[in-house]
């Protein structure tokens, strides 16, 4: 079966130049939540029909993200000591099959990665780090639970179970899961969530470990050190195996109390012993996606604070689309769009929305606003030059042939190039302005051909060109331009 890429840009329409040049490179992401099936799956797959429906549902989600020119999906792959991949370490989530330890007749992670890549989307594995669930969920998991299998690593705190960052074996255990993920799957990134101490962290029951391992450090510094060392170890291992796999995290939205907002309330550094500033400054993160579900002075100054401490890494604010719900905070859509604007023009590298459903359900018109305004044109992903700045070879040229009401664009993979994606540019003029996002037809392509619907009732000339990008998002020079004249009559 040939693959179709239905491009949002209609090739026969006349482009209208915006007053502000659209963004050409930024991350446009969603957190796709699988715990409790909040975003997906909508029901467990207990039969062949429900398995097919489960797969169709996520394909529809990805289709709609592609239609609105998103480029990144943060897929929740580990929830509370349960996972959505074929694991020899932790049980499969019951969300997909109805029973812990049982997959739904397919590998959900492998399936979503493949479907994301077909649509030019990156897939980052969203990994909940320390929480293991309530007493009820631990009991339901039974002998499969982390609490039962590794009791020395676990602590009960305020009615829930957690891996204890202060126990030396915890880092090795989490690293074993990371190794299984990175070695077994073609993920584009791994994204750590809850990589912190829990709420009411001061009362976390780790005094015995502190007396044993604290080495006279203040307990707050010791707790931060536990997490810092783990993040450093994980980052170094990933880069030694697959350096293109991006490492990111979603810390609390406020790093610490700053002069402009001295009464910031709940912060990463002070409240939950999370020190992502150190991770950034020591080069142990490629991207930071802080959960910035606040307004005004609780948002804008903290974007600046993250950027100031980023060490050149990507700062991608996480925006609370769910806050527009009436039962949450009843935000206006302008609260969200103001945050997009501020992030774009104050050195943010894009935005990620929580949750996916709140975007796709068009809450207060958000999906339409993104699709037809903010994300009207495709965007390439920001480059990662600190990982590898090698410029890949460009394809030689695009070839074009007409197939009914479509044009088939195809090209050859450049010689001596292993893994690349492609960006196809076009223009209705004789030359292409590659600096403009309006001339991007599609990006993130992994095949060597695409099919484009065209209006065959009008005669028109098109100019096409193509570039390669490495897995570090470094773009090649453009290929030789190809001019194609579309006519309703054979010429």
List the helices and strands and how they pair.
Blueprint (H helix, E strand, L loop, with lengths): L26 E6 L15 H20 L4 E7 L15 H4 L10 H11 L3 E7 L2 E4 H7 L4 H4 L4 E4 L2 E4 L4 H17 L4 E5 L13 H7 L5 H23 L4 E4 L18 H5 L3 H6 L5 E2 L11 H9 L5 E2 L2 E3 L12 H13 L4 E5 L1 H5 L5 H9 L24 E5 L2 E5 L10 E7 L12 E6 L3 E5 L6 E10 L12 E5 L5
Parallel strand pairs: 1-2, 1-12, 2-3, 3-7, 7-8, 8-9, 9-10, 11-12
Antiparallel strand pairs: 4-6, 5-6, 13-14, 14-17, 15-16, 15-18, 18-19
Q: Spans of 5+ residues with little confidence (pLDDT < 50)?
A: 1-19
How many domains is the backbone divided into? 2
Our estimate of the beta-strand percent is 15-25%
At the fourth CATH level, what is the homologous superfamily of the largest domain? Glycosidases
At CATH level 3, the topology of the largest domain is: TIM Barrel
Q: Supply Rg.
A: 24 Å
Taking the sheet with the most strands, its summary is: 9 strands, parallel
What's the CATH first level of the largest domain? Alpha Beta
3D shape: globular
Protein architecture, described:
The protein is of the alpha/beta class. The protein has 2 domains: 1-22 and 383-491, Immunoglobulin-like; 27-374, Glycosidases (TIM Barrel), CATH 3.20.20.80. It has 14 helices and 19 strands. Strands 10-9-8-7-3-2-1-12-11 form a 9-stranded parallel beta sheet. A 4-stranded antiparallel beta sheet has the order 16-15-18-19, with no helix packed on it. A 3-stranded antiparallel beta sheet has the order 4-6-5. A hairpin with a 2-residue loop joins strand 13 (399-403) and strand 14 (406-410). The protein is globular and about 80 Å long. The protein starts with 26 loop residues before the first strand and ends in a 5-residue tail after the last strand.
